Amino acid sequence: MSRHLRLGVNIDHVATIRNARGGRHPDPVRAALLAAEAGADGITAHLREDRRHIIDSDIERLVAEIPLPLNLEMAATDEMLAIALRHKPHAACIVPEKRTEVTTEGGLDAAGGFDHLTRFVGELGAAGIRVSLFVDPEPAQLDAARALGAPVVELHTGAYCEAETWQERETELSRILHAAAHAEAIGLECHAGHGLSFDTVGPVAAIPTIVELNIGHFLVGEAVFGGLAAAIREMRTLMDKARPRGGR
Ligand SMILES: CC(=O)[C@@H](O)[C@H](O)COP(=O)(O)O
Ligand SMILES: NCC(=O)COP(=O)(O)O
Questions:
Q1: What is the predicted ipTM?
Q2: Helix/strand/coil (H/E/C) assignment for every residue in the chain
Q3: Could you confirm whether 4 is annotated as catalytic?
């Protein structure tokens, strides 16, 4: 029997749209509640050091208000560690961060950053937070995650999703496939995510040793199309309620 594949919905880019105007709309917590109703198994939010999308109060409200496990994505900094230990999300995924990047460009160097990461994995784990490391699909990185004592890895699927040719995509998919098999062989729970879309999700979802996918940017973008008609109908209804049609 195949394992249930969990969907973690990443709501970062609802906050990106909110922050474009600096107000409260659209509210990422409301998006998380909607995701729960729509069948998501978890919510993922990345509190970046520069707070370009999710902000501290979002994390506070997500922990308090959502009925699903929260996966907090965070850089390995003392500030983020303190925030995670204060809020105690279900899970924390340690990701690399570059201030100038548009989005997370690559995986964490768990092997090269071993000494730095040891304390973060240890303190988060000791607080009962399930730690994952966001890594490229490289066996050496998985071995380092295992040696660090992280129970989970999330494989960065960006290179697969961005591949420009069929051949390149197959090569990237096979890296993910092998890494996911290696994760199982060495006793790591395996997640995957970044850049997944309707076009790219199938082959990754079919890999039996991956148990969770985290997907955000595409879903938020797609909602502009799939969800806009419903939003317009609701707007028309409210307008008609406030000023019934048929008048002058
Ligand atoms: C680590 C990761 O893949 C997610 O955090 C996702 O990329 C959304 O955040 P950014 O777009 O800010 O990288
Ligand atoms: N860790 C990946 C994630 O949370 C979602 O990435 P994306 O779908 O927003 O690119």
A1: 0.96
A2: CCCCCEEEEECHHHHHHHHHHCCCCCCHHHHHHHHHHCCCCEEEEECCCCCCCCCHHHHHHHHHHCCCCEEEEECCCHHHHHHHHHHCCCEEEECCCCCCCCCCCCCCCCCCCHHHHHHHHHHHHHCCCEEEEEECCCHHHHHHHHHHCCCEEEEECHHHHHCCCHHHHHHHHHHHHHHHHHHHHCCCEEEEECCCCCCCHHHHHCCCCEEEEEECHHHHHHHHHHCHHHHHHHHHHHHHHHCCCCCC
A3: no
